[in-house]
Amino acid sequence: VWDDETGEMVNVAWWARAISLYVVCFPALDVMSAFPLNAITLGDNIMVMVYGRKIGQVMKDRSKVRVFRLIAAIPPIIMAIFIRQLGEITDIAGTTGFIIIFVFPPLLYLVGRQTALTRHYSRWTHYSTVLASQKVSAVLVGVFGGVIFLYVLTLVIMADA
After folding, report:
1. pTM
2. Where are the alpha helices (DSSP H) in 52-85?
3. CA pair distance 1, 56, nearest whole angstrom
């Protein structure tokens, strides 16, 4: 039962308050616990993109590893200074799903197709189909994903404004 004036729970068992507190705090704790793992993984992936085949040697240099992990960790911390509401942050972060689903697979397909052609492999595999295994299809899906991402991001930002 909620008090209309203070907005606090009244006449509620201690265990119900404990469950309520857990439900309220869990999203923030979940984000805080996953952040270091995500920053380390993203920093390592950025290093691989920059150094490529030399990554084995570069990973031994702890100062370079720290720099790339900080490159991955600092922007979210700075953004958290300006956006204090966890709901707004998760709304904006959730829009990246459109990029992951609709943009990255076509990009991977196009890069893989180009790599196969430069190595003189057939671009047709056991999984190829006439409609889906075309450059035009990949580009259309990628553009669709980009447009949907921008549209939803605009809606999220406008709803928070």
Report:
1. 0.59
2. 55-58, 62-82
3. 60
